[in-house]
Design goal:
mainly alpha, 8% strand
Length: 135
């Protein structure tokens, strides 16, 4: 049963990828130049399968932005917790401060909604709400 479901999903994969790429381009257009916001890098020679749209919120405002976006009904997420922060690694001696760049990224990262069924109107609401909070 699971294999049949997987095969049926594979038939839709290219459409999913195309829609996600379209949404990423729209986010880039709508959010370019917003103060305190760093967009994910894009390279002309790479065709990624975007599964997240991770932005960076500067000035120590990630928690505030997260809470206000959630209060507005927008399902933002925080991803990319440094692996050695997970409890399973505690007894191995890993401590905070080990990878300061990863920790700094995590402190700013916020993933905006990105899925093939996201409508243009929903995405515009996300961008407008985020822009309003940061301005």
């Amino acid at each position: 049963m699971l294999c049949a479901l997987g095969v049926s999903q594979l038939r839709r994969l290219e459409r999913f990828r195309e829609r996600r790429a379209e949404l990423v381009e729209r986010y880039h257009t709508m959010l370019s130049g917003v103060p305190g916001l760093t967009l994910p890098a894009q390279r002309a020679y790479v065709r990624p399968s975007w599964h997240l749209y991770p932005v960076r919120i500067g000035d120590g405002r990630r928690r505030e932005v997260y809470e206000r976006m959630r209060a507005s009904g927008i399902g933002v997420q925080v991803n990319y917790v440094p692996a050695y922060w997970h409890p399973v690694f505690e007894d191995l001696g890993y401590r905070r401060g080990l990878c300061p760049v990863a920790e700094a990224y995590y402190a700013e990262e916020l993933s905006l909604p990105l899925f093939p069924g996201l409508t243009d109107a929903q995405q515009e609401h996300v961008a407008e709400t985020l822009t309003g909070i940061l301005r």
